[in-house]
């Protein structure tokens, strides 16, 4: 953009504001015109700050800025047209226009000012994008503050479309919304032509979260009604004769039918079909394939193709993209930062924003600097010349050394990293979104012994060059045996489970927790949660008879998805467990204080790592490790551990699994 921008006076914390001019004819689609004006914080300039998502750059829209034609994104153009006043200018701060995006030094300087820019604005305007019939209906209901409507199915579906807007998945908007605080003019949230106070929107959002079962209930209701109608005589009589399926595909049809019936009516579905037992039902399917093929088409339509079904699956997907807890995080963050004028820890922010993304990976950290303390901001240099990975290194170094629960972040973000630059293994890839079904559910890979390490006193230091983390931990020994799982049928997995059971009986001490608990990595001891797993396991291992296909469903829905992503291992000290896929024989499994999971450590070949470890070598360290995976470690005496835990577990060495000396690990 060359001469479009004059240099800012960084000594007086100068920034630019946009003077948005009215349209020439008053038409919504009039060309956009504006000028930039340099202002200083100490002059208390008037302006409103826009919080929005840049969005796709194509097809570009045109705007005349300071007399020059420039390209802007369609989403920004839509926002400016909605915000433009018909007969007067409007003063705004818009990052894409007010910061010279081509000047990395200016950009780094202005990022440090984001907190005061939004905090001192006369108002914050959150733009979600253009409206649709669904979003307009939802926004009108919020505008009227009609709580009765907020509990309805239609509102739930319409409001869901608002949450699908990119604003709810971008990292920069968090601090833009959170720090903006003007007692006279609270933030407004706009979609299309409708703008509402932020408190109204968030109240509706909380109602949406409280009424999530409404969408599930409507889906189940339609499913049950449609499927029930297929057992009426009038429906059956209308089914035309269809050639029976090949014998080879009959079993597949039976599985689909049973899955559909179970989804609609639960495990006790036989009365709905008019059959006394499973044998009678299966015989009917084989004798009347035409009816059951047609019925299966109804199941498929109700499951995936009807409008209600599509809304249901869209709702399930939304829970991964915008977790239910995100609303509460934003409310808490705003109350802490804007209202109470306090700061948040990196650990709390990064946990609360695991679902968010940024175009530039470095912005995953830079985009939240306005929410942390000045000490934390000063410790993280804003430098767009550096690789993204090396933005995360000083960040994690600060977190480990200054935040009590910060080390837990590494256990929450275990996925394979995407960095080409070799960086320390104790530094997470903060760009990887957490998976709803694993990372947001702390029972997975969180064993009882590892769990107690959460409260241990940490003995951790980071070298001056940020390459080496020195810490103490309890080792469970070296991995001696590994059993992997590949794709296979139920019989394949049963054979593998029996192989594992034999290995456990041979290598592990008596009193080992049940193998099913180890395989799924679950710490929960609630009988209501555990009983179905135990029953499924007994059926799989031939110790009990299957009833109504419940064990098969449990295996397919709960057990199989977990074990497919894990590897089973046994160490040379007799500890068994499951780990993420990168574990190998020879690795060490250890508890490190502060982590929520046991870590898998691998001795590092320094010649291959190309990481500077000069600081560590000063201490005459000869063995270094890298964190390569995380694990659930089975407890040798769960009942005793639970008794000690309830008693307070003042001395963790009282438990057999933990009665050992701490080892020192140097992790790079």
UniProtKB/TrEMBL annotation:
Question: What InterPro entries does the annotation carry?
Answer: HET (IPR010730), HetReg/Transcr_Mod (IPR052895)
The Heterokaryon incompatibility domain covers which part of the protein? 47-176
Q: What is any Pfam family matched here? A: HET
Residues passing through the membrane, by range? none
Full protein name = Heterokaryon incompatibility domain-containing protein
């Amino acid at each position: 953009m060359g001469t479009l921008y004059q240099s800012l006076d960084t000594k007086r914390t100068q920034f630019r504001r946009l003077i948005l001019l009215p349209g020439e004819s008053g038409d919504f689609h009039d060309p956009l015109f504006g000028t930039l004006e340099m202002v200083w914080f100490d002059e208390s300039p008037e302006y409103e700050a826009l919080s929005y998502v840049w969005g796709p750059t194509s097809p570009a829209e045109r705007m005349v800025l300071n007399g020059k034609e420039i390209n802007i994104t369609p989403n920004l153009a839509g926002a400016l047209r909605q915000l433009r006043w018909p007969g007067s200018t409007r003063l705004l701060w818009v990052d894409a226009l007010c910061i010279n995006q081509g000047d990395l030094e200016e950009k780094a300087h202005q990022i440090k000012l984001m907190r005061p820019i939004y905090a001192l604005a006369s108002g914050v305007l959150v733009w979600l994008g253009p409206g649709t019939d669904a979003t307009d209906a939802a926004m009108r209901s919020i505008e009227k503050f009609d709580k009765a409507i907020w509990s309805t199915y239609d509102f739930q579906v319409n409001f869901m479309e608002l949450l699908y807007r990119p604003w709810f998945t971008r990292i920069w908007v968090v601090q833009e919304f959170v720090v903006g605080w003007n007692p006279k003019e609270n933030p407004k949230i706009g979609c299309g032509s409708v703008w509402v106070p932020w408190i109204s929107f968030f109240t509706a959002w909380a109602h949406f979260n409280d009424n999530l079962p409404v969408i599930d209930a409507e889906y189940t209701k339609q499913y049950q009604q449609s499927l029930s109608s297929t057992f009426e005589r009038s429906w059956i009589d209308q089914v035309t004769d269809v050639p029976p399926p090949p014998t080879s595909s009959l079993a597949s049809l039976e599985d689909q039918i049973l899955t559909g019936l179970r989804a609609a009516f639960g495990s006790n579905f036989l009365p709905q079909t008019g059959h006394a037992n499973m044998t009678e039902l299966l015989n009917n399917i084989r004798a009347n394939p035409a009816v059951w093929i047609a019925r299966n088409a109804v199941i498929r339509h109700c499951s995936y193709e009807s409008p209600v079904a599509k809304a249901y699956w869209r709702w399930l997907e939304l829970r991964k993209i915008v977790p239910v807890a995100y609303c509460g995080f934003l409310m808490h963050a705003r109350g802490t930062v804007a209202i109470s004028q306090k700061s948040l820890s990196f650990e709390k922010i990064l946990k609360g924003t695991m679902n968010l993304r940024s175009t530039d990976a470095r912005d995953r950290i830079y985009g939240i600097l306005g929410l942390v303390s000045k000490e934390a901001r000063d410790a993280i240099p804003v430098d767009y010349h550096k690789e993204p990975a090396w933005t995360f290194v000083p960040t994690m170094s600060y977190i480990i050394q200054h935040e009590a629960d910060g080390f837990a972040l590494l256990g929450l973000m275990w996925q394979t990293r995407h960095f080409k630059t070799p960086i320390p293994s104790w530094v997470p890839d903060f760009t990887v979104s957490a998976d709803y079904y694993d990372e947001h559910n702390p029972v997975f890979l969180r064993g009882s012994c590892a769990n107690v390490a959460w409260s241990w006193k940490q003995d951790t230091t980071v070298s001056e060059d940020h390459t080496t983390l020195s810490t103490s931990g309890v080792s469970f020994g070296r991995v001696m045996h590994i059993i992997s799982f590949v794709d296979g049928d139920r019989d394949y997995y049963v054979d593998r489970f029996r192989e594992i059971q034999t290995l456990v009986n041979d290598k592990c001490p008596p009193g080992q927790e049940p193998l099913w608990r180890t395989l799924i990595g679950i710490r929960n001891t609630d009988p209501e949660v555990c009983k179905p797993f135990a029953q499924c396991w007994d059926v799989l291992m031939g110790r009990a008879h299957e009833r109504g296909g419940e064990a098969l469903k449990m295996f397919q829905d709960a057990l199989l998805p977990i074990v497919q992503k894990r590897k089973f291992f046994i160490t040379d000290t007799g500890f068994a467990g499951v780990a993420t896929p990168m574990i190998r024989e020879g690795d060490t499994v250890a508890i490190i204080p502060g982590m929520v999971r046991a870590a898998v450590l691998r001795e590092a070949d320094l010649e291959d790592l190309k990481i500077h470890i000069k600081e560590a070598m000063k201490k005459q360290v000869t063995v270094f490790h890298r964190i390569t995976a995380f694990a659930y470690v089975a407890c040798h005496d769960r009942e005793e551990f639970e008794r000690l835990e309830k008693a307070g577990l003042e001395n963790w060495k009282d438990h057999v699994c933990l009665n050992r000396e701490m080892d020192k690990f140097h992790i790079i």
